[in-house]
Amino acid sequence: IPAIHQKLEADGTEKVEGSMTQKLENVLNRASNTADTLFQEVLGRKDKADSTRNALNVLQRFKFLFNLPLNIERNIQKGDYDVVINDYEKAKSLFGKTEVQVFRKYYAEVETRIEALRELLLDKLLETPSTLHDQKRYIRYLSDLHAPGDPAWQCIGAQHQWILQLMHNCKESYVKEQKGNSLLHSPMLDLDSDVRPSPIGHLSQTASLKRGSSFQSGRDDAWRYKAPQQVVFVEKLTKLVVSQLPNFWKLWISYVNGSLFSETAEKSGQMERSKKNARQRQNDFKKMIQEVMHSLVKLIRGALLPFSLREGETRQYGGWDIKSELSGQWLTHVIQTVRLSSESLTALEIPNDMLQIIQDLILDLRVRCIIVTLQHTAEDIKRLAEKEDWVVDNEGLTSLPSQFEQCIIHSLQSLKTVLDCKPGEASVFQQQKTQEDVCQLSIGIMQVFIDCLEQLSTKPDGDIDTAHLSVDVSSPDLFGSIHEDSSPSSEQRLLIALSNCRYLERHTFLNIAEHFEKHGFQGVEKITQVSMESLKDLDQRLFEMYIEFKADPIVGSLEPGIYAGYFDWKDCLVPAGVRNYLKEALVNIIAVHAEVFTISKDLVPRVMSRVVEAVSEELSRLMQCVSSFSKNGALQARLEICALRDTVAIYLTPESNSSFKQALEALPQLSSGTDKKLLEELLNKFKSSMHLQLTCFQASSSAMMKT
Fold first, then answer.
1. Cα torsion through 407, 413, 419, 420, rounded to 10
2. Is there a cis peptide before residue 246, judged by omega within 30 degrees of 0?
3. For the whole model, what pTM was predicted?
4. Are residues 525 and 620 in the same domain?
5. Among 170, 443, 507, 610, which lies 20 to 30 A Cα-Cα from 352?
6. For 549-587, how does the pLDDT look when each residue is reduced to its tens digit (9 = 90+)?
7. How far apart are CA 144 and CA 83, in angstroms?
8. What are phi and psi of 471, to 5 degrees?
9. pLDDT tens-place string over residues 223-282
10. Do residue 159 and residue 248 come from a single domain?
């Protein structure tokens, strides 16, 4: 029994222990599971926390990249392109070659925005108008952003096209205005506006070249309302070019020397590439400058010298409604404008061969100005006839020769700046054709005045303007020749014209020749020679007309006077004195003397000599026509011939002397001393009785003038 009890106790204990162990294991398992569950949550949260912490660390560490796309957009909107470029360079160096997917994703966003920035900057670079400062800035930005292509050259090309477009728009606007349409004051064309986007108004203030008084600076703009449309156009066109071209040229220079990029070492490669590109594009840029110069010149030619354009160029560069050519005054103004433009462009150190076309234009304008001025001078001189007042001074001249000379002098003085050569300019007379044209025009001017004199001296009395006619108070007023406010007779007009011709030949034409030479005219000798010949021809014709007017009546009165009362040389009484016909002839000759002396005493010898020649010739003819003389008839004839000859002795010429000699030779010789004595007594009686009337024939023979 004890053994059984011990065994039972042992079995029971084992069972209890086994049950307890099982229970304990179950408890432990449940506890373990519960602990595992609890710690898994803790560990999960810890892993999440660690992951979040790590993510935050990454975000914090690489927030520059993650924020960069948004920052780029913000800085672009603010115009902080330098900040964008610096950030981009930094991001590129850090993440440009990353393999991390998230970094690559964000870096791709950066590149997308940078590409958009490149396009934006290129648009701004090519936008017109723009300042040189902005252009350089945008070029550097694009270079720093490694923009494809050559933005600097693209900018140069855009500026080139912009300038050309401005020039043509300027022309079109003025052509429209000239044809009646109102000028649209668009910003593109308002040269005096300070409001953008006016390129000219803006750039004219920022241009580095100062033109002083050119383009009417500081001058009242009232002249623009008086100036022809073409003149205002040239003024604004040249101002446009001179305002725009300096920046264009400086942009090219910066492109050539690489100064578009900073001088730092890291940019040296860009500078070298720029210089290389510039060397390759020198010819292209030269063509651009030449195209601008050609457009400038052809637009000016189209406005002022349309005949100098080729047939196909008229539509593009012309189109002006040119009813009348510009005066020399306005052409001179235009020449000055173009000269100043040329000086400004030369100051940019643009090669002379590119500017030669402007010098050619200036030469053509100078030549045209001279031609037009001389043509207008001829027209002005033609109108001098309207100003002839027939007021004669004490030298027998009207104001006409002086007005003529002053007109020429004024015309030449107005051409002084045109004739003078500026540096680099050729003489306007270098071309043979120009010399010939100017010579012919100068001769034409002289001829116009000669024609004017002829018209005045020969036109009918009714065509004479008698509003202001008088004679100088110091001139003798004999025989009622010319009175205050009276119209000169045809004969008096001829005398006045002859007096003017004499002065022109001896003074005016020689003075004008000196002025021509002083101003560099060619062929002055020819001008003078041809003009003198024409003047002398007119003088001779007017002189013959006057002699015909005056001598013919006297000559015509001789024969009727001689044979009045049935006088017969073969049957006449002993001479008692000089008959009345001769006295009347002498009185008529004295009247001619008085008329001529009243106008010009210098003309007296010439006129009187010819009148005496005509009378003596007629007297000789009449004597030679007599078949025979009685003794008394021969004495009477000799008395009258000698009386006339002795009276007009100071006006005798070889021709009149010969006529008197032939007349006397036709008479029988005096046979006795009584007849000679009677002849002498009768001559003395005649001279004594007509002493007062014959006073005018007693002037000093030294005053005589050759015919």
1. 170
2. no
3. 0.75
4. no
5. 170
6. 999 999 999 999 999 988 999 988 999 999 999 999 999
7. 12
8. -125, 150
9. 555 788 889 989 999 999 998 888 888 888 888 887 776 544 455 666 777 777 778 888
10. yes
